[in-house]
Amino acid sequence: MSDPVLITVLAGRFSNQAAAFYALRAWAEWLGIEVSPEDTDVIQSAREVRLAHYFRPAILARIEEAAKGDDTIILLFPSQLTARPDFPQDGAPMRLIGRFAGRLETGL
């Protein structure tokens, strides 16, 4: 089963997924917010396939268009961090693509 949610989408250039998550966690900690892997999905390979798990095709296309030039997409699921309108701040190694209606799989 999946629930509709608002997913925050960021993009940037990172050497690997771990580096992207580390950068995200460091910026969140600077704001006094703890981020866990369950709050995110860091996507570098098979982007369209992985994004299709969360978004309708039209939204997926908008995200891909906006992320051109970036090799990493970071999805932030509803959390304390996504409640902050000032994230990411200027100077962060990632940029905000937008907030989009999506779906998250929930436990049975």
Mean pLDDT: 90
Order of helices and strands: EHEHHEE
How many separate domains? 1
Strand order within the widest beta sheet: 2-3-1-4
- Tally of DSSP helical segments: 3
Largest sheet: 4 strands, antiparallel
Give the CA-based shape. Answer: globular
Taken as a percent bin, the fraction of beta residues is 25-35%
Number of strands: 4
Helix percent band: 25-40%
Separation of the first and last Cα atoms: 7 Å
Low-confidence stretches: none
Would you mind describing this structure in some detail?
The chain is α+β, with helices and mostly antiparallel strands and 108 residues long. It has one domain (2-105). It is 28% helix and 30% strand. The chain contains 3 helices and 4 strands, in the order E-H-E-H-H-E-E. The chain has helices at 17-30, 47-52, 57-66; strands at residues 2-12, 40-43, 72-76, 94-105. The protein has a 4-stranded antiparallel sheet with strand order 2-3-1-4. The longest helix has 14 residues, at 17-30. It is globular.
Q: Short summary of the structure?
A:
With 108 residues, the chain is of the alpha+beta class.
Features:
108 residues, alpha+beta, 4-stranded antiparallel sheet, single chain
Per-chain topology:
Blueprint: E1 2-12, H1 17-30, E2 40-43, H2 47-52, H3 57-66, E3 72-76, E4 94-105
Antiparallel strand pairs: 1-3, 1-4, 2-3
